[in-house]
């Protein structure tokens, strides 16, 4: 065996075990009252700040040593190392993560029509292949949706991608890439608003951690978006609501309140925020 290799020790926890532990603790904390959750969150922030400072110094020292950049790149390709460094903002998101974020931004719009989209392959040096699923597969409007929505989202998140191709099958002439992001999700669900303050069929607004949010409620379902019109970023919460739609009070852009889809300019949409309802609590989780 290579003397420089460091195989996983038999008693060393696996990546899945470590992330699973985090998810279980996050689920436990989510059931605590607000004051307890606040203490847990403050404690996590203090520990995170300590770890980030130490990692930043460690990386700076390693980078200063001759011939170590390649070793750092290899280390950062490991899911565990990548996840921790990404969590602390010490490295930029990988292309895989940015591509998944691009598709996540358009999935609510596609889901409203019973469809979805998946990445099939990355074809070096600058091309990706995607496939529509569900009702979007073979739909007469899929070409327009593809060009206006998916292609634009990928180009915005990954400017290095120059071509986006729509394919009909998951099989490809190139090896299918693993686009599952190794980033460790450790976001804590935070109380944003009370359910009974959101009128059924209407909207309410609230700021969480300084971020303005728009909440919509219909038949027991709650949706949450950043309170910013996709046109100029102005708040849409003050606009007229009716028939499941809201109209931006500034320039009239109309949005579906359950999906965030813009009916005025189908290539854009409101930015969604993960949301869940627990009794009368409406909680959100910001993506890191």
Descriptive notes:
By secondary structure, the chain is an alpha+beta fold. It has three domains: 15-87, no CATH class; 95-166, 2-Layer Sandwich (GMP Synthetase, Chain A, domain 3); 190-284, 3-layer Sandwich (Rieske Iron-sulfur Protein). Helix content is 34%, strand content 22%. The chain has six helices and twelve strands. The strands form four sheets. It has a three-stranded mixed β-sheet. A hairpin with a 6-residue loop joins strand 9 (245-247) and strand 10 (254-256). The radius of gyration is 22 Å and the shape is globular. The two termini are 38 Å apart. Residues 1-6 and 172-186 have low confidence and may be disordered.
Descriptors:
288 residues, Rieske Iron-sulfur Protein, disordered N terminus, alpha+beta, 3 domains, 6 helices, 12 strands, 3-stranded mixed β-sheet, 3-stranded antiparallel β-sheet, GMP Synthetase, Chain A, domain 3
Question: Brief overview, please?
Answer:
The chain has helices at 15-30, 34-64, 69-76, 79-87, 95-111, 142-157; strands at 115-123, 127-134, 163-166, 190-194, 203-208, 211-218, 221-226, 241-242, 245-247, 254-256, 275-278, 281-284. By secondary structure, the protein is of the alpha+beta class.
Q: What is the count of structural domains?
A: 3
Counted by DSSP, the helix tally is: 6
Q: Identify low-pLDDT runs.
A: 1-6, 172-186
Quantity of strands, as a count: 12
Helix/strand-derived category reads alpha+beta
Percent strand equals: 15-25%
Task: Write the H/E string, N to C.
Answer: HHHHHEEHEEEEEEEEEE
Largest sheet: 3 strands, mixed
CATH superfamily of the largest domain: Rieske [2Fe-2S] iron-sulphur domain
Provide the residue-averaged pLDDT: 80
Broad shape: globular
CATH architecture label name of the largest domain:
3-layer Sandwich
CATH topology of the largest domain: Rieske Iron-sulfur Protein
Lateral arrangement of strands in the main beta sheet: 1-2-3
CATH class group of the largest domain: Mainly Beta
Radius of gyration based on Cα positions = 22 Å
Secondary structure: helix percent: 25-40%
Termini distance? 38 Å
């Amino acid at each position: 065996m290579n003397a420089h290799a460091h195989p996983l020790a038999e008693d060393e926890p696996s990546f899945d075990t470590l992330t699973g532990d985090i998810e279980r603790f996050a689920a436990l904390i989510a059931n605590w009252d607000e004051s307890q959750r606040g203490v847990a969150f403050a404690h996590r922030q203090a520990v995170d700040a300590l770890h980030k400072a130490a990692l930043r110094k460690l990386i700076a020292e390693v980078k200063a040593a001759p011939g170590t950049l390649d070793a750092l790149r290899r280390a950062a390709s490991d899911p565990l190392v990548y996840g921790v460094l990404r969590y602390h903002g010490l490295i930029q998101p990988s292309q895989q993560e940015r591509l998944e974020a691009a598709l996540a931004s358009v999935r609510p719009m596609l889901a409203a029509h019973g469809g979805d989209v998946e990445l099939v392959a990355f074809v070096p040096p600058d091309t990706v292949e995607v496939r529509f699923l569900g009702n979007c597969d073979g739909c007469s409007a899929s070409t327009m949706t593809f060009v206006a929505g998916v292609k634009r989202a990928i180009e915005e998140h990954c400017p290095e991608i120059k071509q986006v191709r729509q394919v009909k099958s998951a099989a490809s002439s190139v090896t299918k890439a693993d686009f599952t992001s190794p980033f460790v999700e450790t976001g804590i669900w935070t109380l944003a608003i009370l359910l009974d303050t959101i009128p059924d069929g209407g909207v309410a607004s609230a700021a969480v951690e300084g971020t303005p949010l728009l909440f919509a409620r219909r038949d027991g379902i709650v949706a949450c978006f950043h309170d910013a019109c996709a046109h100029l970023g102005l708040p849409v919460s003050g606009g007229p609501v009716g028939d499941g739609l809201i109209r931006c009070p500034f320039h009239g852009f109309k949005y579906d309140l359950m999906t965030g889809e813009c009916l005025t300019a189908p290539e854009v949409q409101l930015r969604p925020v993960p949301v869940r309802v627990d009794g009368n609590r409406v909680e959100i989780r910001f993506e890191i």
